[in-house]
Write a structure and sequence with these properties.
The complex is a heterodimer of chains A (196) and B (465).
Chain A lengths: L5 E9 L6 H4 L19 H4 L22 E4 L11 H9 L3 E4 L4 H9 L3 E4 L2 H13 L4 E5 L4 E4 L5 E3 L4 H9 L3 H6 L2 H11 L1
Chain B lengths: L4 H7 L2 E4 L5 E4 L2 E4 L5 H10 L9 E3 L17 H17 L2 E2 L10 H7 L8 E4 L13 E4 L2 H10 L1 E4 L3 E8 L8 H12 L7 E6 L1 H5 L2 H9 L8 E3 L4 H7 L8 H11 L12 E6 L6 E3 L7 E3 L15 H11 L14 E4 L1 H4 L2 H11 L9 E4 L4 H9 L2 H7 L25 E4 L14 E4 L2 H10 L10
Parallel strand pairs in B: 3-4, 3-6, 4-5, 6-7, 9-10, 9-12, 10-11, 15-16, 15-17, 17-18
Antiparallel strand pairs in B: 1-2, 2-8, 13-14
Helix pairs in contact in B: 2-5, 6-8, 13-16
The chains are: A alpha/beta (196), B alpha/beta (465).
């Protein structure tokens, strides 16, 4: 099982607000019955032309950002449909962290259930990241989960981010909610009897 | 201590609370469709688990299914595989199941309430963000991801952080030609697409009390479009009247017992919400959207905002959006020609929606330049339309009824709007490519859709009323 520690990596900047899950993965790609292969269709309509060739002006097609494990996006990332395929696409592409000033609720849960860490930063910190990457595409961010700290290594500025201690432990230890819930079956049965 | 409606239901479903973590919430009802459930069932298989409470799970294929010739095998092999996978999973794991062609098949969020599966006081989930619809019954209902679907299949519980609470009051009386859809689009335009993120919303006030149950379902359905975890309306006599006698509604002594409990499910007079807003009915016009998220809406006679009215950080997105739609900042869109009309979906696919639409087009003809897709939300809705003679009214206007399903709302089947074409749609999302790659969606009410269908352009429905 994947365990999250600290990541220092280049980023992919996407300074668009309200990126909805229909953009992250369009509905016509939701027909699979497993979790694999969605990374190839991440942002498909922004990334590919009709004939399947790459759109040169889309950031994922820019070789400068190849191999980045951190996606940095504008406010209200992941709104719309509850499709977990969006989280599978982001994880499948190779992103371990998504940074934004605001996330839609369902997307945030889905990301965490797939060990993609959503990091909420202030709007000023987000603007600072976009400024840094504009002047140097190779700038890096460091995301330190243990200390809940994100650092823009180009400016040296850092900020603390929030995560509840249960989810933090899940990331650090690599265990998921289902493991935990299954261990509580007796309590669930007791709850059901008490309600009758 | 005084409690909100939300608190009362939530608290009654807490199994445990993890210290500095989420709540383990008991789920009364889960719906599954074919798109967001296969990986969850596969997860059970991998872990060697059964469905914990199969009687509380209902599986219905709706997203991929064709709206013509449903009796034939689905032509698209990938869609067919997904629907067949649901069929296999439903049978293997023994959950309730309404397959294609079943008299109770249809869009999940239409089928649940119409069969008495969604009731006051329940917790209801589905791997679908429009699960918020069922909140209209006085329930806590919200969309979840596939990992969470797996949790519910395995344990009938999910982990959720307790959301903040918001109450939105609508006061006054709606004007002629103003529908629940307009109320919702107005609210989302005021709050923006992320304005209620982190909150669970209760709708209240004179407008909501006066709404029919179907209006309330439409309003709650769109809660997610402003980011809300869900939306709900306290059950009242209208709710009890609506659910009484439906197949899964309790009967006899059980009904009496439940009813006395349901009657306690309302927000206490002195309960405090984290946020409270009030809107006035007289400010609400027939609404249309002009951009690529449901928050980009305006009255049909209004002009699109100009660039200087938009926050600097949002300007790139705003311009990208207008470029996609082929609109210009500052212009009015009333009178613009359109190409497609779609009435249906979990938002506006109920009998009252089709009655409004049919009453409007009665005695008129479909405009030559427009393709009209009329898609009932379920077979029960279809049956009722025919019993009431709506099929004949529509046929006289040059329109025909298709078979039930999610259809052009998200175009996973063949009902795709071609690139560059404008569709006036009673559905819930105008995202880029939502109704087909390059399709341009204008969200509106069934009345606005009817006016567009007969005039071939964006028309204020009140001009004919």
């Amino acid at each position: 099982m994947y365990k999250f520690t600290t990541i220092t990596n280049i980023i992919v900047p996407l300074p668009i607000e309200n990126v909805d899950t229909d953009q992250i993965i369009p509905a016509r790609f939701l027909k699979a019955t497993d979790k694999n292969g969605f990374g190839d269709n991440l942002f498909a309509d922004w990334r590919y032309n009709k004939d399947g060739s790459s759109k040169a002006d889309f950031v994922l097609n820019n070789p400068k950002y190849k191999g980045a494990q951190i996606l940095v996006a504008g406010k209200n990332f992941g709104s719309g449909s509850s499709r977990e395929h969006a989280a599978w696409a982001i994880a499948g592409y190779g992103f371990k962290v998504v940074v934004s000033s605001f996330f839609a609720d369902i997307f945030r849960n889905n990301a965490m259930n797939n060990f993609v860490l959503p990091v909420v930063v202030s709007e000023a910190f987000l603007a600072d990241i976009f400024d840094s990457v504009n002047s140097d595409s190779k700038m890096t961010l460091t995301v330190d989960l243990e200390n809940q700290k994100i650092t823009n290594n180009a400016t040296g500025k850092s900020e603390n981010f929030a995560i509840n201690s249960y989810k933090k432990e899940c990331f650090l230890q690599g265990f998921d909610d289902i493991d935990y819930l299954l261990s509580k079956k007796d309590i669930i049965e007791k709850f059901e009897k008490q309600r009758l | 201590m005084s409690k909100t409606l939300f608190d009362k239901i939530w608290d009654a479903h807490i199994v445990t609370e993890v210290q500095d973590g989420p709540t383990q919430l008991y789920i009364d009802r889960m719906y599954c469709h074919e798109v967001t459930s296969p990986q969850a069932f596969e997860g059970l298989r991998t872990r060697g688990l059964k469905v914990f409470r199969p009687a509380q799970i209902t599986a219905i294929p709706d997203h991929n299914i064709p709206t013509v010739n449903q009796e034939l095998p689905i032509a698209d092999p990938v869609s067919k595989n997904q629907v067949d996978t649901l069929d296999r999973n439903a049978k293997e794991f023994g959950v309730n199941y309404y397959p294609i062609g079943h008299p109770k098949n249809g869009v999940i969020h239409i089928v649940g309430p119409e069969n008495g599966l969604s009731l006051p006081g329940m917790t209801i989930v589905c791997g679908d963000s429009h699960t918020s619809t069922h909140g209209a019954m006085g329930a806590i209902a919200f969309g979840i991801g596939t990992s969470e679907v797996e949790m519910v299949l395995a344990t009938q519980c999910v982990f959720q952080s307790r959301p903040k609470t918001m109450r939105i009051n609508f006061e006054g009386k709606l004007g002629k030609g103003i529908t629940a859809k307009d109320v919702a689009l107005y609210m989302i335009a005021q709050l923006t697409t992320g304005g209620a993120t982190g909150y669970f919303v209760e709708y209240a006030g004179e407008v909501v009390r006066n709404m029919t149950m179907e209006d309330r379902l439409t309003l709650c359905n769109l809660s997610i479009e402003m980011g809300a975890r869900g939306g709900m309306i306290a059950s009242d006599e209208k709710t009890f009247e609506y659910i009484k006698g439906r197949e899964y509604t309790p009967k006899g002594e059980e009904w009496d017992k439940k009813l006395s409990y349901w009657q306690t499910l309302k927000t206490d007079d002195d309960a405090v919400f984290d946020k409270e807003l009030t809107f006035h009915a007289e400010n609400i016009e027939p609404m249309v959207t002009y951009g690529t998220n449901p928050g980009m809406g305006m009255g049909i006679g209004d002009a699109i905002p100009t660039l200087d009215m938009i926050d600097e950080a949002g300007r790139i997105s705003f311009q990208k959006s207008l470029e996609y739609m082929g609109f210009t900042a500052g212009e009015k869109i009333v009178g613009k020609p359109i190409d497609y009309v779609f009435i249906g979906s979990c938002t506006n696919g109920r009998i009252e929606d089709f009655r409004q639409f049919a009453n409007f087009v009665k005695g008129k003809r479909k405009a030559e330049n427009v393709v009209v897709w009329i898609v009932p939300g379920s077979w029960k809705v279809d049956k009722q339309m025919r019993e009431e003679g709506l099929d004949k009214i529509l046929a006289d206007a040059g329109m025909e009824i298709r078979q039930p399903g999610c259809s052009a709302c998200l175009a996973m089947n063949d009902d795709k709007v071609p690139a560059g074409k404008y569709a006036v749609s009673t559905s819930n999302r105008n995202f880029e490519g939502r109704q087909g790659p390059g399709a341009r969606t204008i969200l509106a009410s069934p009345l606005m859709a009817a006016a567009a269908a007969v005039t071939g352009k964006l028309t204020d429905p009140r001009d004919f009323m």
